[in-house]
Design brief:
The structure is a single chain. The chain has 161 residues and is α/β, with parallel strands linked by helices. It has a single domain, classed as Rossmann fold, CATH 3.40.50. 42% of the residues lie in helices and 18% in strands. A 5-stranded parallel β-sheet has the order 3-2-1-4-5, sandwiched between helices. Helix 1 links the parallel strand 1 and strand 2. The longest helix is centred in the middle third of the chain and has 17 residues. It is globular, with a radius of gyration of 15 Å. The model has no long low-confidence stretch (mean pLDDT 93).
């Protein structure tokens, strides 16, 4: 069984993330979407548990998907699950340098875990979780960029801010 993990902060999950997940499901027998506890990033809008719940609901119609989380090295988490690859999304050339460096570091840490770069549909290449959060915080309509339940969760978060 070929297993891949798709690590990220997913704060929140977007339709671009879902597009990558759907593409990955066609390439692997199982895809594990895993929320990283990243101490380097600012405090997230959604709690760790909220992000896992939002992802689980977003992928509930897909088969061979698991949602979990990890802390520490992604390659260690991949090995723990018998994963052969890490999925990473590339939206634009600006993503490439960071992702390339991370892929090289991960290969250095464990050469048995390959990094597979997937591009989302062109209509999502400009979408990021950060842009969605910013637009939603200012009252913008982000319903084209996130699942309906995520749009509702964003509206609930920002009405209380």
């Amino acid at each position: 069984m070929k297993i891949a993990i798709y690590p990220g902060s997913f704060d929140p999950i977007t339709n671009g993330h879902l597009d990558i997940i759907e593409r990955a499901v066609h390439l692997f027998d199982k895809v594990i979407v895993t929320v990283a506890r990243n101490t380097e990033k600012n405090s997230p809008l959604f709690s760790h548990e909220e992000r896992i719940s939002l992802i689980a609901k977003a992928v509930s119609e897909l088969e061979n998907i698991e949602v979990d989380s990890f802390e520490g090295l992604m390659v260690d988490h991949a090995v723990k699950h018998g994963s052969v690859a890490a999925i990473r999304g590339l939206r634009a050339l600006s993503d490439f340098e960071f992702e390339f460096k991370m892929a090289l570091m991960n290969r250095n840490l464990n050469e048995d875990i390959s990094t597979l770069f997937l591009m989302p549909h062109a209509k999502y290449t400009h979408v990021s979780s950060a842009m969605v959060r910013e637009a939603a915080s200012l009252g913008g309509n982000v319903s084209d960029y996130v699942p309906a339940h995520v749009d509702k969760a964003l509206k609930n978060k920002y009405k209380n801010v």
